[in-house]
Write a structure and sequence with these properties.
Strand content of chain A: under 5%
Radius of gyration of chain A: 23 Å
Number of helices of chain A: 21
Strand order of the largest sheet of chain A: 1-3-2
Structural class of chain A: mainly alpha
Largest sheet of chain A: 3 strands, mixed
Oligomer: homodimer
Distance between the termini of chain A: 62 Å
Largest interface: A-B, 36 and 37 residues
Number of strands of chain A: 3
Helix content of chain A: 55-70%
Amino acid sequence: MNAYERLEAHHRRLFHLDHINAIVSWDEATMMPRGGGPARADALAALAQLRHERACDPQVGDLLEQAVQDSSALSDWQKANLGHMRRSWLRNTSLPNALVGARSRARVRSEQAWRDLRQANDWAGFRPYLEEVLALEREVAQALGQALGCAPYDALIDQYNPGLRQAHIDPLFAELAAFLPDFIERVVEVSARRPRVAPGGPFPVEQQRALCMQVMKALGFDFEHGRLDISHHPFCGGVPRDVRITTRYSEQSFISALMGLIHETGHGRYEQGLPDAWLGQPVGTAHGMAMHESQSLFFEMQLGRSLPFCTFLAPLVREAFPAHASAQPEAFTPENLHASYIHVERSLIRVDADEATYPTHVLLRYDIEKDLMAGRMQVADIPERWAEGMQRLLGLDTRGNDRDGCMQDVHWPAAIFGYFPSYTLGAIIAAQLFAAMSRALPDLDRTIARGELGAVVTWLSDAVWSQASRHDLDPLLQRATGEPLSARAYRAHLERRYLDA
Amino acid sequence: MNAYERLEAHHRRLFHLDHINAIVSWDEATMMPRGGGPARADALAALAQLRHERACDPQVGDLLEQAVQDSSALSDWQKANLGHMRRSWLRNTSLPNALVGARSRARVRSEQAWRDLRQANDWAGFRPYLEEVLALEREVAQALGQALGCAPYDALIDQYNPGLRQAHIDPLFAELAAFLPDFIERVVEVSARRPRVAPGGPFPVEQQRALCMQVMKALGFDFEHGRLDISHHPFCGGVPRDVRITTRYSEQSFISALMGLIHETGHGRYEQGLPDAWLGQPVGTAHGMAMHESQSLFFEMQLGRSLPFCTFLAPLVREAFPAHASAQPEAFTPENLHASYIHVERSLIRVDADEATYPTHVLLRYDIEKDLMAGRMQVADIPERWAEGMQRLLGLDTRGNDRDGCMQDVHWPAAIFGYFPSYTLGAIIAAQLFAAMSRALPDLDRTIARGELGAVVTWLSDAVWSQASRHDLDPLLQRATGEPLSARAYRAHLERRYLDA
């Protein structure tokens, strides 16, 4: 084996450990009894340290040098793979092994504690966990930033979106910060006037689950290579050939769980659609979390909440709940489902927020993360800063209600800093992709309304899934849409959907 | 840290990897979608190799030598722990790392294939998997046997029951082989005459599950540190502070699932009852699989199927299925439950077999394993040998029905050779423990009938759970029962329960 081939074998082994970690982490969130928590935190930390030791095997440095020297013989995919291997090596070797273990243990324990403390609205109890986690993330960010030659917070963003920097994000987010307040003001008024009937429950969980699985299958989710479960915080985990999607149901309404699963199905199809030939290699993984969120938001926001898709959905919902539908037929029409799914109002919870107000959460989290990482604010300052931001951006009061304020999201408890921008970048990318696809596919609305999604899937697979991490973000978007990342299509989409109707 | 303390830290890390492996293996059996199988087999193999590499770290050899030299300062528990560390080192270093990976991959793939091929009664399709697995196990047995200074098959037994050899098992099993045929003959006759009414179903799975959980709680199973799920083959997995019990339900009858869970609860309580102070150390693990099976069989056979326990159980069953109970009151009496649970008849399936005929499966498996490992027979000979044995021992014909014959059990597909004796040794130990406990605790039948199991649990915890792997088998039994391993109490129990009634 030459140096490059030995590096591929090395990364295949790391991928196996990532597989193990993904399944055990999924178990931690969905299956583990509470009392199993402390031992699990230790076990995951030991795995993280072992994985890191492996990744930092000194031989790898020599192999990378050799492979770069011999790289003229490599294919474009192999060259891109080698590039990812080098960045991964830089990132790994910049961190002391003990820090990797301490970080893993702290994040698992903190997330476990958060599950109860959030319920109890107990900020004072949670604060020390977050302080420990943040101190470790600052250390990680410093070390990674030095290795990558970027600011500490950039280095955290880079973990989730390789190559992405604040310098790319700031102007886009500034554009939205200018656009959104007035837009939301107008949309809330329009939305309040739009007629809409809430389908009356209760909707038994088992029937909701069956409906969700039916819709997931219609969207092509492969249950031979994935499954659906319940968790506290909906997510998509697992590995490309064993995708673990989770949700939570409310008996009062199927509206939120159903759309949540359409969202997660977008994540899942991306993973299931990654190219077989590169499975287990860095270039074969999903492009980054902004692109990942773009796939879930393409499924949810662009496709799922559209009138054509609601036209496909309505009869399935009526079949799932025939008694409800015959008792209240006006609630189960495509038009009413669509109206429910594009209803906008100011509300506290990000994961339940509508498409128009959602980005305010992200802008606020992004600003706070920047200040936390730069040391301009401390953990103790978060509740007040959150309350001030929510008041300013949405006119909502979260003082004394940290449970539905700054404590609502799993990210910070789980030491996930630098991720939040991915959501809104994903929304921007999703709109850009959908606009390009609409230009490419004739008669799109009618085929979607009939549930014929083959052309959509083929287009997405060609544009995104099959490309894995072969290109950087702008070249990938250029190839798929004819232009680099831009908020133009996103703003046009928002105005068309929420103000033209 | 001195050498001994460094060895403790080393074993704590191995324990974390064993935790990870236990959870991922549980997931493989209960949760994983079928398509995830190949990648999972590779991931588990990579984990096994990494664990093995770690276990064989050359430094450990030096530390062991040093710790043995300094061992006069160690406590008895520490000395026992050091002994286990040394045997574990011998076992690990005797195996090449590549063999560890190949063995793990082959066993996971073979078990995955078996799930379908058994259903399809496809011996020809399954045979190559078993041949690969057996070839690797023979290699493992050779290497382990050389390191431990024992016969290859002894080395396999030793994996599940440290220190146990064929020389201990053979006389006990010969005693049973002489005792059982005539005993079964008589018991089948007695049993056929004993009146017994089958409770009429259907029994919805959800209600069965609730009943089972109620009984598990009454037996002290801690759901804060464990859970209950469904799998193809019932088992108890996970780790001491996160015990994963599985079962399968039939709507036709609750009888089998309920007793199956009482059995698995015995395994689970043993794990949950291991001493905190030694968690993560070799001496802190369960004693061996014979002792493990003794705990499940103590719960199932000694306690669960007894008339006093059925007296406690009957009202719970009636509350769980009130309509059934009022329609057919004679089926829900303590006496009738007891009669159902001690009914004996010749049947094909080990896991559904009654207490009296069950050992014939074990005797036959043991004989075949010995011959397979000694090279006196080949995989191709198994179906005929199985058919001949079942005919001879139970008068049953399995020719052409490998699904319910030699293919019925997960052990060989999963490369578990040397385990089967544990079941019958466990039954023998369970009877010996129960007899000793009955001598120690006054008024036992009446407290059991009232569901007051505190004294039973305290006795078991003192005799077995709290001792973990502190003693060898005979000293452990001597301490708990006043005598070494003997089949006397077991035979007395069988004769009293099945012939005196």
